[in-house]
Amino acid sequence: MTSDTIALVDGLPPGWGGLAFDLCSGPGHAAFEAAALCPGRAWILVDTNRELLRAAARKAAGLTAGSSFMFACCDAESVPFAFSAGCAGLVLCNPPYEPPGAGRAPAGRARRESRIAPDSFGTARFVAAAGHLLERGGGLRILARPSGLVALLRALDAFGLGSFVVRPWGAPGAPAVLVRVDCVKGGRGGLVLAPQEPRPAFAGPPAS
Question: Is the CATH number of domain 3-193 3.40.50.150?
Answer without folding.
Answer: yes
